[in-house]
Each structure stands twice: as structure tokens, then as C-alpha cells.
Specification:
The chain contains 2 helices and no strands. The chain has one domain. The chain is mainly α. Keywords: DNA-binding.
């Protein structure tokens, strides 16, 4: 992922990967989150 993410997001993603959540699931989550938050990140 080449998008600029806050350290908070990087930590969250790192933890998710350690818990066995796939990168595809994370990507889907981020995509959906951004759509619902109307780009407030």
C-alpha cells in the first residue's frame, strides 16, 4: 500500500496482520471506511 497512512493506521494494520487478518480484508475495510467517512481522514 503506497497511500500515506498515519502511524495509528500502520499500527492497526500491523496488529491486524499479526491476528491473521489478510491484507485483502484490510484493503476492503479501508476502502469501505473511506467511502463511508466522506474522506474525513
Amino acid at each position: 500500500m503506497t497511500e500515506n497512512l498515519d502511524k495509528e493506521w500502520i499500527d492497526l494494520i500491523t496488529n491486524a496482520l499479526e491476528m491473521g487478518i489478510s491484507s485483502a480484508e484490510i484493503r476492503d475495510f479501508l476502502h469501505n471506511y473511506r467511502n463511508h467517512s466522506s474522506h474525513k481522514l
